[in-house]
Amino acid sequence: MAELKLDPATRPIDSVADEPPVPPERLNTGWLRSRFANPREWQPEAMEEKPLPGGRNRWVPAAVLIPLVARKEDDLWLMLTRRAAHLHDHAGQISFPGGRVDLTDSSRIETALREMEEEVGVEREQIEILGTLPQYRTGSGYSITPVVAIVRPPFAIRTDPMEVAEVFDVPFSWVMTGAHYQRRSVMLPDFGPRTFYTIPYKHYMIWGATAGMLRNLFHFMRA
Question: CA-CA-CA-CA torsion for 165, 4, 68, 117, nearest 10 degrees?
Answer without folding.
Answer: -50
